[in-house]
Specification:
By secondary structure, this protein is α+β, with helices and mostly antiparallel strands. It contains 24 helices and 25 strands. The chain has a nine-stranded mixed sheet with strand order 13-10-9-8-11-12-14-15-16, with helices on both faces.
């Protein structure tokens, strides 16, 4: 006869529980299911239920417990055999009276514990009350009117015959002590207490061991009495001398330099002290390194502690929360190499700037920094020991090409590379020789920036400009479709700071536009109202000095060069000078302007206003009476600007750090900024290989810059997207094909082949030929050469004809 379902399940459970492993697996599975139900909310703890649900659940528990006890008693009674007539009575289960007694004891125990808890709480409350009244009594006793000096003297001489001069001296003593005690008690500032303590302390009281008596007489605290021997007025602020004020001014201006601390762009990155709210500035190096830098520039003596003490409160050391996401790739990769070599005891320091300075004859000379000096051309940094063949792991930021299906893209990742000590040292020495040019450009451009800013003439003005991160417009309250969808509009913020000789305080400005274009046409659309404002407020200004960072898609490109040589002249300006900071080091005052405006917009949203688009953002910021000059640039105005004609680029654009225009349609450029003849009104001095570039618009022909034209063989810039492609390198007037491995600013690492005939090349072995080349040394990009035999390859004929033409 088949078993019923309930009996089958019962037997299955019996077999399962008889096997310890199956039993444990079942319990583990049940626990996991319970946790899952708990996390999803299917099962709730008693504390998560409502009061009504709690009462219902507890009632069920009571009924279930009652039923379980009844069942247990029934089983005991059923299993208990009939008493036998033996000498030993049968073993019976607990009786009903015993169970009831246990319940009664448990209830009494709970009641006692509850009363004990209540009594402890009452006792603690009474103790607090007693301490309160005890303290109040002490205060009342201390503040109660004391006995008069005359009464104290009478008490002292009571029952004794004392002459009048002694009584008079005692009266003077008690009166003076009471007067000083009263003044000390009523002193409102710490300075007054320090003065009184200093006057009433000294070596004589210490000599006669009257310090404790003084403490009791004048009412000093124990802490005050312990420090009476110290000059307690040392902390009193005294009037600073002229030399001290000058040092303080120099240190403050040093900390606020853009190469020492960078302005934070975030709207929440502020710090407030004594009701003064300032935008944070983050230090770019450690305080010790900055102290050494300050002493080397000022040629004076200043202690490290004083240097740290004079730091402005809003200039802070960056923390994890202030994580920098705009670091320079060149700096970071070089520093990571230096850290790895220093940890292996090969380098004596981690400071890459100090190492770069040590391999140059003159750290302030362009020839040494650009490897044009014959004396230090082959200088290398001396290591502490000879590197071996031990493995070294070093992290590096690298750009890689990834392929997904039929598409490829470039990504930048941080990889841990394993190499040997000797290879890493050779790579570091090579990178350090290029890093000295990078650090020289940073210092030189910031020095030029400060020099122009501090010596502006009446007919000059300086504009420091930058694009702020686009502001994401938002509502005070949003539905899900808006918040999680793509319905939010963005507003472009082009920020800047204007410096003039007439106005000592800089003028901050910002143009707001719904257009998300950041190309040269959009840049000059944003600059149009700013230049118009300059012509209106400062009509005597004829010369413009621009400073910005140098992205190849925005400021430092042929389109912007063309516009800066044409647009300002339409408004009557006569001389334009555009200077670029080194790549990755262009942070400055405009970033703080963007952060302040975004913070004001977020504050308006918090107070219940909606900012759904750029126009309303402009109106809301305008209504706050902000000190920032605001302009609105409509999208139609940006689109209406004429397109830039087809022009050719300047050769070596990424090396350019200064572009000059002294007449319409004509440009001059150089690698670094030169201001040697600025006092004489000339910026186009022939220093540092000043080059000419001309714009012509005759007969409606397309303008053209002098230089190598961009063709299908050679793009305007060699960028990270070209990694992995084949190119031809010009090395000592010979062409060599190779594969592009890395691209950093205006230098390219190429793995080259060697020549074994006319248009015949082979891979060298066993050592590869991998070298860094300048951008202008890349002749063209080619397809992969075809195999000529087992060892040699050959460039296709069309590409080879073009290459031969370049050497004619």
């Amino acid at each position: 006869m088949p078993l019923c379902a309930a009996e089958s399940a019962r037997q299955y459970r019996k077999r399962r529980d008889a096997n310890p492993e199956q039993r444990e697996a079942y319990l583990r599975k049940e626990r996991e299911r319970w946790r899952k139900d708990r996390d999803t909310g299917k099962k709730k703890c008693i504390n998560d239920l409502t009061e009504r649900e709690k009462r219902s659940q507890r009632k069920k528990w009571k009924e279930a417990k009652k039923a379980a006890r009844a069942k247990a008693r029934a089983i005991v009674e059923f299993q208990t055999p009939e008493p036998l007539e033996l000498d030993c009575p049968p073993q019976l289960g607990p009786s009903r009276q015993r169970l009831q007694g246990e319940k009664s004891r448990e209830r009494r125990k709970k009641k006692i514990m509850k009363e004990l808890k209540e009594l402890k709480a009452k006792l603690a409350k009474e103790k607090r009350k007693g301490e309160k009244y005890k303290k109040r009594y002490q205060r009342m006793k201390r503040e109660a009117p004391s006995v008069s000096p005359q009464s104290k003297v009478r008490e002292l001489v009571k029952g004794q015959k004392v002459r009048s001069p002694i009584k008079r001296a005692l009266l003077f003593h008690t009166t003076l002590v009471e007067n000083i005690r009263q003044k000390y008690r009523n002193a409102k500032t710490e300075r007054e207490r320090q003065l009184i303590a200093r006057v009433t302390s000294g070596s004589i009281l210490k000599k006669y061991r009257l310090q404790k008596y003084t403490q009791k007489a004048f009412g000093y605290s124990k802490k005050r009495n312990a420090t009476l021997s110290v000059d307690l007025c040392a902390t009193i602020k005294r009037k600073e001398s002229g030399a001290a004020l000058e040092i303080k001014r120099k240190v403050r201006s040093f900390y606020l330099r853009d190469d020492v601390s960078r302005m934070t762009p975030g709207c929440k990155q502020t710090i407030t002290r004594q009701k003064k709210k300032m935008q944070k500035r983050l230090l770019t190096d450690t305080l010790k390194n900055l102290h050494r830098k300050f002493l080397s520039e000022q040629h004076g003596q200043l202690s490290y502690s004083t240097f740290c003490r004079l730091r402005p409160f809003w200039v802070v050391t960056p923390t994890e929360a202030d994580r920098n996401t705009c670091l320079c790739k060149t700096h970071e990769n070089t520093q990571l190499m230096a850290n790895a070599l220093h940890s292996h005891g090969i380098l004596s320091t981690k400071s890459i700037e100090d190492m770069a300075d040590s391999i140059m004859c003159d750290s302030k000379g362009k020839a040494c920094a650009y490897s044009e000096c014959r004396e230090c051309l082959f200088s290398v940094y001396q290591t502490l020991k000879q590197p071996g063949e031990a493995e070294v792991c070093v992290a590096q930021w690298t750009t890689e090409r990834i392929h997904k299906e039929d598409k490829s893209s470039m990504i930048t990742v941080k990889r841990d590379l394993v190499t040997t000590e000797s290879d890493l040292v050779s790579q570091f020495q090579e990178r350090l020789s290029r890093f000295k040019q990078h650090i020289f450009n940073i210092r030189w451009q910031y020095t030029a920036y400060r020099q122009i800013r501090e010596t502006l003439k009446a007919d000059e003005c300086m504009l420091h400009i930058d694009f702020s991160e686009n502001y994401l417009c938002k509502y005070r309250q949003e539905i899900q479709a808006v918040h999680f969808g793509g319905s939010h509009q963005q507003a472009t913020l082009h920020t800047g700071v204007l410096y003039t000789a007439e106005d000592q305080s800089p003028l901050s400005f910002c143009s707001i536009s719904p257009s998300r274009r950041h190309d040269p046409t959009a840049i000059w659309a944003h600059l149009d109202p700013v230049l118009g404002m300059i012509r209106q407020r400062f009509p005597e200004v004829k010369k413009l000095h621009f400073f910005s960072d140098g992205p190849a898609t925005q400021y430092r490109q042929k389109g912007n060069f063309y516009l800066l040589s044409t647009e300002p002249y339409k408004l009557g300006f006569e001389n334009i000078n555009w200077n670029y900071f080194e790549a990755g080091h262009g942070k400055g005052a405009p970033d703080g302007v963007g952060g302040a405006l975004k913070r004001s917009a977020d504050r308006a949203i918090k107070h219940g206003e909606d900012i759904p688009n750029a126009l309303i953002l402009y109106e809301r910021l305008k209504s706050t009476n902000s000190s920032v000059e605001l302009f609105y640039i409509s999208e139609d105005y940006v689109e209406s600007k004429p397109e830039i004609p087809a022009i050719a680029p300047i050769k070596g654009t990424m090396r350019v750090h200064q572009v000059l225009s002294v007449s319409p349609g004509k440009l001059k450029y150089r690698d670094i900024t030169c201001l040697c003849k600025r006092e004489a009104g000339m910026l186009d001095c022939p220093c540092y290989q000043l080059m000419d570039a001309t714009v012509s618009e005759e007969h409606n022909h397309a303008p053209a810059f002098d230089g190598t034209n961009e063709t299908r063989w050679r793009p305007q810039f060699i960028e990270a997207k070209h990694i992995g492609e084949w190119c031809v390198v010009n090395y000592e007037d010979e062409a060599y094909p190779g594969i592009i491995i890395k691209v950093e600013e205006h230098t390219i690492m190429v793995k080259c082949m060697h020549r074994n005939g006319i248009n015949k090349f082979f891979w060298p072995s066993p050592r590869e030929d991998i070298t860094w080349y300048a951008d202008q040394q890349i002749l063209c990009l080619i397809t992969e050469p075809q195999a000529l035999n087992k060892r040699s390859v050959q460039i296709d004929k069309a590409s080879w004809r073009y290459i031969e033409e370049q050497f004619r």
